[in-house]
Automatic annotation (TrEMBL):
The protein's name in its UniProt record: MarR family transcriptional regulator
Species of provenance: Natronococcus jeotgali DSM 18795
Highest taxon in the source lineage: Archaea
Amino acid sequence: MKDLPPSAKLVFFVLKEHDSLTQKQLSEESLLPSRTVRYAITQLQEIDAIETQVSFRDARQQVYSLSETGTEVANSFT
């Protein structure tokens, strides 16, 4: 986590506060541009901190949430 860019850390903590969000919702909640959120998601996926699922509402979208590893990291901050 320490080596991640600030945008990835922000996205991580937004996901910690919400169960799961789409990329658009992450962008709205974090106030980051969509492109920056995409980069942050990629960074978080590389360290297995988040997991991706297909949205039940719209199969064209993906929903992001903390993985088991991400949850353990999040719990270490509390």
